[in-house]
Amino acid sequence: MKFFINGRFLSQKLTGVQRYAAEMVKAIDALLASEQTAASLRNADWQLLTPADASEGLDLQRIKIRTVGRLRGHAWDQIDLARAAAGGRLISLANSGPVLHRDHIVVIHDAQVFRRPDFFNWRYLAVHRTMGRLLARNAAIATVSAFSRRELAQVLNLSASRIPVFPNSAEHFAATKPDPGILARLGVRPQKFFLFVGSKTKNKNLAVAIRAVQLLDREDVPLVIVGGDNSKVFQDNSGHGVSGLLLAGRLTDSEIAALYAHASAFVFPSLYEGFGVPPLEAMIFGCPVIASTADAVVETCGDAAAYFDANDAEALKQLMLERLAAGAISDQERRRQQERVAFYSWQKSAKSLLDHLAPPASVASAA
Fold this sequence. Notes:
Blueprint: E1 2-6, H1 16-32, H2 39-42, E2 45-50, E3 64-67, H3 73-84, E4 89-92, E5 104-107, H4 112-115, H5 122-138, E6 140-142, H6 146-155, H7 181-186, E7 194-197, H8 206-216, E8 223-226, E9 245-249, H9 253-262, E10 265-268, H10 278-284, E11 289-292, H11 295-301, E12 306-308, H12 313-326, H13 331-343, H14 346-357, H15 361-366
Parallel strand pairs: 1-2, 1-4, 2-3, 4-5, 5-6, 7-8, 7-10, 8-9, 10-11, 11-12
Helix pairs in contact: 1-14, 8-12, 10-13
GO molecular function: glycosyltransferase activity
Protein name: Glycosyltransferase family 1 protein
Pfam families: Glycos_transf_1
C-alpha cells in the first residue's frame, strides 16, 4: 500500500489551516512509529510530497519527505502532485488537492466560500467554489467539526454521514513558554487589557470588537489586536485611528502566550468559523473567553466561554464590563476550560483519520 500526503501547505503562509496540516502530519507520523494503528498502515509506504518552494520541513520518523515537480500553487497540486501520487492513496489536509485523483481524501475546513461570498474577492470565490465542487465529485471529503460537516453536506450535495470529522486541537500551544516582556513592550498591565488574535479579515468581525471598545470608553483597558491581514483576498477592517486600540501586528507564539496569560479576557467575535482554535489557545493559559454564538465556536468552546451575538457590540461591551468586575478567572471557570482543551487532541484526530483509512480486517488479513 502507498499513502501520499499533500505537502503544499509547507509552501504557504502559516495560518490555522496550515498549522492543522502540520500538526496532523506529525501526529500521524508518531502513530505510525508506534503500535497504536493497524499493521497494514504501519507497513505501508508513506510519503509527504512537497513542492520545490516548500519553506520548512517537518521532523518525521516514519513518513518520508520527497520534493516533486517544479510548478507552484494550484498548478503544482493539479499537475506535479497528481502525477507523483498516481497509484496510491492521497491525503490532502488543507482544503485543496488534485481534482482528478480518484483515490483521494480531502479535509475541507469550512463552507465559507459558499455561505459567505461577501468575505472574498470574485477570483478567489471562482477558484475555490469550482475546486470544492470538483473534489466533492471525485474525492472523499472530510472536515473539522460537526457544524462544517452539515454545511459542506448541504452546499456540496453530499450525505453528512459520509463526511468524517477530524477536529482541530490547540495542544501544540501548551508547550509554548510565555514571554512576559511583551507586556512592557506594548505598555499594558496584567488584567488591564482585552485581547484579539487573528487575521483582520471580514469573517473575524473585528469591527464589532472595535465598536464595543468605543462603547466601553476605557482607554486604561485597551483592546490589543494581534495579527496581520490579507487584503488581496479579504475585505479589511483594521480599526486604524480608533482610541482604545493597540495594534500589535504579528507576534511570536511566546509573546501571544504571555498576552493570553495576562489579558482580562480574549475576545473572539467571529461571524463564521469552521472550528475556532484561538479560544482553546486562550483557555490553555487560563484566559477568560468572550466569544460569538457562531455555531462552530459554540461547538468548540461548550460551557467554557461567555457568548454574545456577533452583530451586537452593546452585548459584547456588557460582557467586557462584567469580566472587569469579576476580576481573575474562578476555579470553576478554569476547570471548564481545562475540560474543553482536553476534549481535543492531535493524536485523537490523527488516529480517527488512520482508522478511517485502514482497510477492513477481512481485507487486511486476506492481503
